[in-house]
């Protein structure tokens, strides 16, 4: 088994796609579609990688990122951020908050797989 | 003893003669036969009170002690009369037009009728004049003693003489000086008497002079030889003292209370002044002509140690010319009495008007209403003041011991009263002079005069201790009375004159520049400084109409033409004079004053109205000058205010524009990132699943089919989004073409319901309609209207959160047109979000549904194109939208 991924994403079809791609390579994927309690879910699951959307109901991806980085138990977990809002401001904001990797939608499946692999390897 | 008896008889006869002259003059003036009393020559002769006993006797003494220096005392007035003619003319004009009664009144009036200044100048005048009156009493006594050297108990005779003279003068002054209440009335009797005395003293001095030159010396040439031989010819002339004394006597000529009395108060017309300007210097020249010969001969003839102040008497006596000596005595007596009489009148007017009466009015509680009692009180107070002034002079004479030389006392007195000069000249030539400035100058000058001249004059150690004279006040060397600020070695008189007058002037100007005059001060300042511009044509306010017209002109200047005319018309109507000007009734004046006070302040308004109505000597031009000044100031401040308001407004507009730009920029960012999100999200799914389909061989047919349909649905979603965006863009740019058709409202609604409710889903939402009301013909773009309805019904389906969702569609028709309400039974939209739901991509938070959030934005655009509108309907339980169509589009049904 390659590892455990928590996917925080509200778009049903994208959850399905990412789950399919990762689980086919042996990853265990837990999807979470609400922003409000996403950080709590990560804390409980103690995953190897977190994949985080930006536009979420309840709480934005940026807020969740900050919350995770501020909490010692999740401060060092690798976080891959995905956004559909391709603006450079988002990238800067995320990098300042300590994101591990930042990708813009739409992405290629191979790229996501590669990113998740790289994040767990280091 | 015979000569003494002769002297007493002659003297008594002379006094009776003076009483008679005064009485006759007074009577003919009263009967209106006093033309001759106003002759310029009488006025000129009355000015001779400048030549007191100090001049009559003292000039010779001064020549013996200081050479030609005595001439400076004549030089000053000559300069004023010849060179400063315009100053005098202005003073006289002001005195007449303002009904000025004294120096104190002049200064007080000029500076806003200041009581404090009036009292201050009065005190200064009394302190400055009292030694001078004492000096006159002393000279009469001394000269009398020349004829009665052998009388036993001389001391008591002396004081008796002084008392008799003082009492006699008091009686004369009271009799002829207080006949009228109005201090501004001319005292014809007094003036006539002193004119006679002027002739007597000139005649006496000339007679003695002629006797000395031709009777004793034997001719002009011999006299000149004697002068050359005497020590008088050896006196050196000190430039500083000459300049100082000339300046001082010029100042005193203008400021001395008694000179002001004859120059200004007793003046009747300016022709008098014209003659005086050349005749009085001539008189002075004649008075000074024989001074040096008398002095030289006296030094020659009389034993060493004789009092040179009495040479005028003792030289004829020593030559056995007793009748000449008696004439000379009468000359000296005349000089002394005329001065004391006028000084007493002048001082009593000041003391009475500025000190006694104000105090009495305050104590007795009588306001400004003048009744008969007050008249008596004023007369009584003036009479008592005369007695008081003479008593003071007598007391000073008794207690000072009469030791000092005559001319020294004269100089102290001159310097004291000269302190009024800066405030006086500044007041009549400079509008910027203020009350505070005048007070400061007078206080400083008076203080320095007291400290450096008056107090030390009692002799070192009498009032000012020796230690202070030598080491300065509090041991500070720079405060020594005769060497202020360390300037040592100067003549004490020059020293005091220089410091008192220069610091006085500096204080006056500095404080005037630093302070701002009050309204009444400004008014009076304009009056005084511009006296020539209008007082010549002093108008009398004859009729009520003339007064009202002037009030109108003034009011227009201050209130503006429209407002003033409105006010006057209103007041005229109130008085029952709808077509004319209002009568200047008390009620009207009060109203006018209140209106003006709003613009120029209560004090100025009161003064202005009072001056016009009271017919005071203030001319209309003055009032207008003040009004213009005020109006300019108000206009200026209004302009400043307007400018500052404009700046504030501009700043506000800039701030608003800036924040609008910021908001727009934020909106644009938000819009772009929204579009990006809405487009990329379906594209992400499409790309991910198409890659899965491409790369994975081991997919089950069910998986393949599922992923393909996801790709299909997302592609449709994307297409719909693009359609909406294009639709909105077209609608917003106004490029849409409407397809107007006629149709029934119910048909449009049927279509919309069918399109909104997907056929394959169970109709979870219950839609309640009113078939009857829906039968309405419309002429509009039916497809666009249906699009709006579809959107509203779809929203209710998606967002209504009731267990049994119900949508009511209600139709109502009013004057404005047709209204279609869509109201569901859900929880509705919170108030803070109602404003933004019509914005692009505005999806109420937490609600996740298929749309991109463009539906309501598009609906709003459509309704605007159709000439109607769509709004959120407040106050309903659930979400409620109202679609309205204009009346001409809603064609009546059946």
UniProtKB/TrEMBL annotation, chain A:
Keywords: Phosphoprotein. InterPro entries: Bact_response_regulator, Sig_transdc_resp-reg_receiver. The modification 4-aspartylphosphate is found at residue 53. Residues 4-120 form the Response regulatory domain. CDD domains: REC_OmpR. It comes from Thalassococcus arenae. This is Response regulator. It holds the Pfam family Response_reg.
UniProtKB/TrEMBL annotation, chain B:
Keywords: Coiled coil, Kinase, Membrane, Transferase, Transmembrane, Transmembrane helix, Two-component regulatory system. It comes from Thalassococcus arenae. CDD domains: HATPase (cd00075), HisKA (cd00082), SLC5sbd (cd10322). The chain crosses the membrane at residues 6-25, 37-59, 71-88, 116-137, 157-178, 190-216, 242-260, 280-304, 324-356, 377-397, 403-429, 436-459. PROSITE patterns: HIS_KIN, NA_SOLUT_SYMP_3. Its EC number is 2.7.13.3. Residues 626-660 form a coiled coil. It catalyses: ATP + protein L-histidine = ADP + protein N-phospho-L-histidine. This is histidine kinase.
